[in-house]
Design a protein that fits this description.
eight-stranded mixed sheet; mainly beta; single chain
């Protein structure tokens, strides 16, 4: 798989001149099946009305090491895309086109100042946990930029004194909006879906750690990784995302064609719910007689299924299989079949992700069947109601 990695895992451009530092990174197109391209930009420290666009800086068909100058207090951002799929916004046109991302703040090596723990040595930080997001609000005593990261294992201190996650442990990384005293960052799973990513997935009920790194215009910096005291004297703090429950119910069947020309049909339906890890849950429904144009309203509880998928980005799909019974017909005839999802597929339930977006309350989805055998046409509509809650 193609990859984009920082030469130093802490993703920091240390100052190498009075006014700038150097960001170094490694581009590896191996396994991508084609060339890859980098898009880059610099963010200056001060507030700007709108950040500059990303610029296409190169196409790579072989492994390369790259170094870029970064203004003091600024940030150098790099995005790796499949060839011809990058964009000046830095946002992929489709989820699989973004292969990697790095953000390098430019700071001075031995310039730590207690921006985050000036008040009674207690970080002014608040963490809001969701099932698909983590939101952090915090205060500094000078206008500062900040980078917030979450990871699945505790961070450590590198030789220069900076906090660092192992690259594969990072679930999400985000920059705050410009220099501020009061900061807020919302983190969602934004690294795992990349084709070349080795990052961990954000999951529900997952134990996570965090790093808040902030810096001022002169390149002075501070960090916290807990809510109780000065780091690293106080060790990394963990928290958990919320557990998810998904309730899915087959609500109504509508018969568009019962496949019997001169009589009413008689059919059985299998309602199948899949999540990320468990054995699919199955519920059966019978409909006899089943007239073309008729509805079967299914009582609540008859086909309710509860699952708890761990992957915070989704992972529940449904399938409805229908079999119209033609046994005993004259002349003899084979059963007619159709399914929501066709011959071998399922229909994924849409899961909203992020702050104030997670909950779903009795959302109604309508699915049309596809014929799965030759012969008389069996056709139906399945109405499915689902809810998503977090404990």
């Amino acid at each position: 798989m193609a990859s984009l990695t920082a030469s130093d895992p802490n993703e920091i451009a240390l100052v190498s001149s009075p006014t700038s530092g150097t960001a170094t990174f490694h581009v590896d197109p191996t396994g991508s099946g084609a060339s890859v391209e980098t898009w880059e930009r610099d963010l200056v420290f001060g507030a700007v009305t709108s950040p500059p666009p990303f610029v296409n800086t190169g196409t790579f068909s072989a492994i390369a090491n790259v170094a870029r100058g970064v203004p003091l207090g600024g940030v150098h951002q790099v995005r790796l895309f499949r060839q011809n799929q990058g964009h000046p916004s830095g946002v992929p046109s489709n989820p699989g086109s973004l292969l990697g991302r790095l953000d390098f703040p430019c700071v001075r090596r031995a310039a730590r100042i207690n921006f985050l723990t000036r008040c009674a040595s207690m970080p002014q930080i608040d963490i809001t946990r969701g099932g698909t997001f983590v939101s952090m609000s915090f205060a500094v005593n000078v206008p500062a930029r900040a980078r917030v990261q979450i990871g699945v294992n505790p961070p450590t201190i590198d030789a220069a004194g900076f906090p660092v996650f192992a690259p594969a442990d990072i679930v999400s990384s985000v920059l705050s909006d410009g220099p501020k005293l009061l900061q807020k960052a919302s983190l969602v799973q934004d690294l795992f879906a990349s084709d070349g990513s080795a990052h961990s997935a954000l999951q529900t009920g997952q134990k996570l750690f965090f790093i808040v790194l902030c810096w001022d215009q002169s390149g002075s910096w501070d960090f916290v990784w807990n809510t109780t005291g000065v780091a690293p004297l106080t060790g990394p703090e963990s928290f958990k995302t919320r557990n998810r429950t998904v309730q899915v119910r087959l609500h109504r069947l509508r018969c568009l064609d019962d496949s019997d020309d001169f009589s009413r049909g008689e059919a059985t339906f299998k309602f199948i719910v899949n999540d990320d890890t468990a054995v699919p849950a199955t519920k059966d429904v019978s409909w006899s007689p089943m007239p073309t144009g008729g509805d079967l309203l299914i009582a609540s509880g008859t086909t309710d299924v509860k699952v708890s998928p761990p992957n915070a980005a989704g992972g529940v799909s449904i399938r409805v299989e229908g079999v119209e019974d033609d046994s005993g017909s004259f002349p003899p005839d084979d059963d007619d079949t159709a399914a929501v999802g066709g011959l071998a597929g399922n229909k994924a339930l849409p899961f909203p992700v992020g702050e104030v977006k997670e909950q779903v309350n009795d959302a109604l989805l309508t699915f049309y069947s596809d014929q799965t055998t030759f012969g008389e046409r069996l056709s139906f509509i399945a109405e499915v109601v689902y809810s998503v809650t977090y404990a």
